[in-house]
Amino acid sequence: MRIAIYDLDRTLTQRATFTPFLMFCARRTAPWRLLALPIWIVAMLGYRAGLYSRTALKRFGLRLMTGSASPDRLRSVGEAFASRFIANPGLMPKTMAELKQDRRAGARLVIATAAFEFYATAFAAALGFDAVIATQWDGDAIPGGNCYGASKKARVLAWLEGEGIPRDRASIRFASDSFADAPLLDWADEPIFVTSSASQARRARVRGWRVIDPLET
């Protein structure tokens, strides 16, 4: 079985999605929450300074910018957000060409992302993916933590097990723009690193990963 797994942010999409989603959701549900945007910026700086985890940051961001919006409401907003985001700023041309090849080859298409499932599923549906592995949200907390790094690999392995797919019977390619995804890239049969940076490309090639420039047409 051929399985093609893609990261979402900056792999399929031209920009990261979380902060744009927070702003989009605030405008749709409670515009006054946009006044809290400077607080969110300070919170991101605190994360970069190592004061707390990505999971804590993302939980804070959702509570700050979306309030008590239910998961169902977030999914509804997520559908509108994905449609708008795909149109502008858009998708990565070269990555989409890779995806088209995988679809033609009959691969099972999976998004594995740290983005929240309530909007990642909308991207997956719009782009014709078969499954989504993403960060969860129960309305108050993030069960299992952020789907990132080694945790993302663990969730992919759990998905394979749940689907009854033995690893030795699957040919797996994985595309990502992030060195945080090294556990999955090293594990995949065909690792694809997505970058326009010459220095990052050199680092990726040293590890034996194929490199694509996502903006190539």
TrEMBL record:
The lineage of its organism: Bacteria, Pseudomonadati, Pseudomonadota, Alphaproteobacteria, Sphingomonadales. The keyword Transferase does not apply. GO terms for molecular function: hydrolase activity. The chain crosses the membrane at residues 30-50, 109-129. Keywords: Hydrolase, Membrane, Transmembrane, Transmembrane helix. This is HAD-IB family hydrolase. Pfam families: HAD (PF12710). It comes from the Bacteria.
